[in-house]
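step=encode ok
step=design start
structure_in=
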């Protein structure tokens, strides 16, 4: 049976016409029930005739990912382990930020694949390998779960403000489903996230980067993590198959919106890429890019060959970049007490280490 969350609005229109002979406005009604009013059951759709609802129930379903566990950190960061229909597990994380008026807003970190084939040496997801692609219903289903959890039922005043594709997986290697998801997100009768509220993070995949840029459907973040090709080959060998110089050249011609800057992610690994020499090379590498650097403090994962960088080196690294007039901001991982770095909760679950208790 078709999961209706797998259809874009034009596809839903065609599906309803072909299967039930329903007019176009019916698709908009059902679409709003699913994406704005968080309906999971056709019986809730009270402006749709009973006959139509009954026929729908015989042909289609609305399937959300199931919440396997929820863990809330002391800082409010909330991590969900989700079970997909075939039993596959993925993670999504909600990160709070409080406005000056004290209103709590949230950013959601989304997964795009079950596992990841890129095998970056510091990443728990990469080390566990690739299982399968996620469907659009599974990608966007993470948002439905989060909105339900947050009681976020007012589309005109959403508390879930921003989305980042920084969970499990390489979004540009699941290009078709990610692009379809971005199109649906953009729809103002549905989830209604403008491209400025969405960031897609990639380790750098040539074809996908070009397509994402042309679509203009999200902001871009790129995981650099090393300032030279040689070092990048060591810490992210598969991503480095696209040479760093070529990646940077592609970023220079990447189409940006007004005031948009590319987020350049640089994971600080203790004693590996956090020294003065790397700071100098990095400053040179990004000098001509319209970007801002996020320096991410490595969150050690079990069995990984890296250590967290020490405070002094982080500070010196940041200061060097500022002196070169490069915007660099240090990001400490939130939710460390709940293993909130990408892939860590699932790694704990599948290796038999007890997962953190729910709230
Ligand atoms: N595949 C994409 C998006 C998912 S990874 C990409 O690589 O950009 C998102 C971010 O999580 C990456 O920037 C990665 O560096 C970071 N990350 C992975 N493992 C981490 C860890 N142990 N500590 C801190 N950040 C980590
Ligand atoms: Fe995949 Fe990103 Fe992890 Fe690398 S850092 S293995 S690209 S999820």
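sequence_out=
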């Amino acid at each position: 049976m078709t999961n209706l969350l797998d259809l874009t609005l034009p596809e839903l229109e065609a599906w309803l016409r072909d299967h039930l002979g329903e007019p176009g406005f019916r698709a908009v009604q059902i679409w709003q029930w699913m994406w704005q009013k968080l309906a999971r059951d056709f019986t809730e759709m009270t402006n749709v005739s009973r006959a139509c609802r009954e026929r729908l129930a015989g042909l289609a379903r609305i399937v959300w990912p199931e919440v396997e566990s929820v863990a809330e950190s002391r800082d409010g960061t909330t991590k969900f382990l989700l079970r997909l229909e075939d039993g596959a597990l993925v993670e999504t994380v909600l990160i709070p930020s409080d406005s000056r008026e004290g209103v709590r807003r949230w950013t959601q970190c989304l997964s795009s694949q079950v596992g990841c084939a890129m095998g970056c040496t510091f990443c728990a997801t990469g080390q566990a390998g690739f299982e399968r692609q996620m469907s659009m219903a599974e990608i966007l289903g993470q948002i439905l779960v989060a909105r339900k959890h947050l009681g976020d039922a007012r589309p005109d005043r959403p508390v879930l403000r921003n989305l980042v594709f920084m969970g499990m997986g390489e979004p540009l290697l699941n290009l078709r489903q990610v692009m379809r998801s971005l199109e649906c997100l953009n729809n103002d009768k549905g989830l209604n996230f403008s491209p400025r509220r969405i960031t897609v993070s990639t380790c750098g995949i040539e074809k996908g980067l070009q397509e994402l840029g042309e679509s203009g459907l999200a902001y871009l973040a790129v995981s650099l993590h090393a300032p030279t090709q040689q070092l990048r080959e060591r810490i992210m060998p598969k991503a480095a198959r696209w040479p760093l110089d070529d990646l940077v050249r592609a970023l220079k011609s990447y189409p940006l919106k007004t005031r948009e800057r590319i987020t350049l992610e640089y994971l600080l690994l203790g004693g590996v890429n956090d020294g003065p020499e790397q700071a100098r090379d990095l400053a040179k590498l990004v000098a001509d890019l319209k970007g801002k650097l996020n320096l991410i403090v490595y969150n050690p994962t079990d069995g990984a060959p890296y250590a967290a960088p020490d405070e002094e080196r982080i500070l010196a690294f940041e200061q060097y970049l500022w002196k070169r007039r490069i915007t660099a901001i240090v990001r400490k991982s939130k939710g460390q007490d709940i293993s909130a770095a990408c892939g860590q909760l699932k790694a704990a679950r599948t290796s038999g280490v007890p997962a953190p208790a729910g709230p």
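step=design ok
step=annotate ok -> The longest strand covers residues 89-98.
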